[in-house]
């Protein structure tokens, strides 16, 4: 078997990524995603060239046709549940281990500058008298 015969044998049993995309009527990116997810099978000829087995593409199409139809009501319900969880998550305070901020500065144990100034003023008035 010559190299040419071998290549013709490969091309008869396999498809390139663009050929698979045209066969499945999807984009090239979708074909690559299907390969990464393991839903269709292939092999790499070189760094850039990938060949996909026709049998795996046909098997994928059979699985898609026998799969249950898309139920919009169920999907809408699931989407609403996800949105509800996201809303609840947004309302939760950050998990820092501290109580939520009340708008007042935390107590430091030191006198505030206004009180210290007031004490100093009263001390000065007592000294002056």
List the helices and strands and how they pair.
Elements: H1 3-13, E1 14-16, H2 17-24, H3 28-37, E2 42-44, E3 50-53, H4 54-66, H5 72-91, H6 113-128
Antiparallel strand pairs: 1-3, 2-3
Number of helices: 6
SS-derived structural category = mainly alpha
* Gross morphology: elongated
- Into which percentage range does the β-strand content fall? 5-15%
CATH architecture of one domain: Orthogonal Bundle
CATH C-level of one domain: Mainly Alpha
Number of β-strand runs: 3
| Largest sheet strand order | 1-3-2
Briefly note the CATH topology name of one domain: Multidrug-efflux Transporter Regulator, Chain: A, Domain 2
> Major beta sheet, specifics?
3 strands, antiparallel
Q: Could you state the order of secondary-structure elements as H and E?
A: HEHHEEHHH
| Low-pLDDT runs | none
């Amino acid at each position: 078997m010559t190299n040419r015969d071998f290549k013709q044998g490969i091309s008869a049993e396999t498809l390139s990524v663009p050929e698979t995309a045209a066969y499945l009527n999807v984009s090239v990116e979708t074909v690559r995603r299907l390969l990464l997810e393991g839903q269709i099978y292939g092999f790499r000829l070189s760094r850039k060239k990938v060949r996909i087995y026709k049998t795996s593409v046909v098997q994928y199409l059979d699985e898609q046709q026998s799969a249950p139809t898309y139920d919009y009501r169920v999907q809408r319900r699931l989407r609403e549940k996800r949105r509800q969880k996201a809303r609840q998550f947004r309302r939760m305070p950050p998990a820092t281990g501290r109580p939520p901020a009340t708008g007042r500065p935390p107590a430091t144990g030191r006198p505030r500058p206004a009180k210290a100034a007031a004490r100093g003023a009263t001390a000065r008035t007592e000294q002056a008298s």
